[in-house]
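As a warm-up, study this chain.
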Amino acid sequence: ILGVGHGGQVLLSDVTQQLTRDTLPPGASIKSLGEHCLKDLRHIETIFQLVHVDLRSDFPPLRSLDNRALPNNLPHQATSFVGREREIETVKAMLGSTRLLTLTGSGGCGKTRLSLHVAAEALENYADGVWLVELAPIANSSYADPHGPVPQAAATVLGLREEPGKPILQTLLDHMRGKQMLLLLDNCEHLLDACARLADSLLRSCADVCVLASSREAMGVAGEQTYRVPSLAVPASWQDQTLETVRQFESVRLLIDRAASVDPQFSVTNTTAPAVAELCHRLDGIPLAIELAAARVRSMSVEEINSRLDNRFRLLTGGSRTALPRQQTLRALVDWSFDLLDAKEKALLCRLAVFAGGWTLEAAEQVCSANDIEDWEQLDLLTSLVDKSLVVYGRLPTEDRYRLLETVRQYAGDRLAERGEAEPVRQRHQAYSVRVAEGAEPCLFGSDQAVWLDRLEREHDNLRSALGGPDPEIALRIAGALWRFWDIRGYLNEGHQWLNDTLAAAGENAPALARAKALRGVGALGRARGDFAAAQTALEECLSVNRQLGDKKGTAGALGTLAYIAHNRGDYEAARAMHGESMALFREVGDKLGTAWSLHNLGETAHDLEDYAEARAMYAESQKLFREVGDKQGIAWSLLGLGDIELEQRDFAAATARYEEGLAVFREVGNKQGIAYARHNMASVARERGDTEEALRLYAEGLMLFAGVGDRQGIAHSLEGCARIATLQEQPHRAVRLWGAAAALREEIAAPLPLSDRGRYDRLVAQTRSAMSAEAFDTAWAQGRSLSIEQIKALVIDETVRPPGPATLEDRR
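Now compare it with the structure written out below.
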């Protein structure tokens, strides 16, 4: 309403005038200015003007879309325009600096609605009007035909008739010359040549005419500027979303608006917010897809819609009957874009569907080339698909990457299967993926470790797809090459599952080397998860295979991980012996990195045996070797070990410095488990300094990280730390529940407390037991043992927000 008024004019909506008409001050009255279509293009509004003797009363007609002084043919819209504030301001600014602006983007991304909204806002800038020319119904047009349907459509909108012996294009140019006018050319992609000719002619002949076009790709006319319309913002994840957080995203607001229009009872709660966020994310924030999904809430819940999205082209149908046919179903929309491609573009787009997480030009060349497409053609074809808004291009600091929106990927995958090419393309993709995984494997150590970890992170979705590929032996090789990546980046549960699955699929007759590497991964990730029994079984088989192969390095690695399991189970002498044997083999083959890890592990064993001088010497020597080979992962763990020695000797400043340096390195390489241990150790420093609130916060943070990567032994460590804080805050019942939960986890994974912690633990538990009745102690302990991981997390989170001191009836008792 504000936008249609004039300076000094007081306007009221119908609702406002009804609320105020009986309470107007003396001399004031209200007069109706009639019904008007406002610039949000949504609905008709009756507008009123406040009249008073002291106010000016004569004003020009309101600047609404119905104002004949602002000529236009912009349509009234039945639905609201949601979000896009940034895009509106950007397009308006660009339109003010160019005479030809083309909005590009994928089908259904909202190009038309954005152009209509911007045009409505710009009405006052064009004295001779804003005119929409809808080109979608036109089947075809020749670039060279001045009598063609494109200039004819524009002429019809302006009320012009063809003159005998004169091309309609010339009639159009003669009419528009000297006029201030904005012409909207909507849906140009199938008529690009003809639209380009019209736009170029207007720019050359009509100095005050501007063109705002919408198209899947640019026209390529001199002087043209383009703006790619993005999909609506979507949540990156959905697990922890609430109503408040999801409403920040335009895609969610659109879904809510459209769903409420078909089901007035529809609403989003904290319970349903994650499902709504997931739906918008999986639909790539494409407005049309979201609107089609919203139409389904009449008959199914958002959760049910999510469960059926793998068949989205069957599910997302039933759009407005008055919409263009291609806007009534999602498949028809993508069909429209696909049918405009040439044969090679269609072939490439279908093959690109095999990439699950984006790709590089090199990957496309290796996977998508065939008899009909040569390697050298890939770049031109990819560029063309980007220009046509079917492929999304992104520039990263280290490489250029491409990706498909999931909706387009599913469509292209269906077409690939129809072409009978799915199997050979999947084979080429799996072959490419194993080269990526095995090429990265030796680089996961050394100074470029973080770079290669990041590359595997970018390729992770592709590698997951290849792990389920057609050749089980190649899948086994990929899994065996990836287990260190999974270990460092905290994919413990997922990686463990992939390794077991690929071992089972490849069978006992798989190549021995590939099987040994995968078994080592099962053991290493199983140990990290606290699944010691299964890990030991896998590692013993791995050790046997490596010894049969005569692979001393593989034997040393298996021995080192077996030693770690013995250490975790409290068998320190066995651990020390196996670490020593492992180190001897690493030294024999000249493996500095393996030697460094053996020294570090011997330092941990010495620490838990309370031989701190020996532990310091081992950690220091291992760190020297880690720095020589540039292995950041090892440097960080050795820093934590040295910090533990400083903490035992109560040199808190030195311990903190070690932990902070190690934490920074863990963050650099993205090691979530390492970050968790660093935070846990820093919590212990805060506890010893008497800062219980900071210690509790850090223990809780560490616990959440341990839970996130599936490290049950780490969770137990954190629970025991939180329990010590509870005793300091005089909350004995809470402490006992936490100890009970930790004890249950340790029994489950057969990982007793380290010997170095046992004395302090026993003293604290005994002191707490003596301060409570036997019945209360046993009840609290049993309560803790019965908690699930989720309940444990909730208990610890609750603890971090409670004030110190006895806060429950049980604790006061």
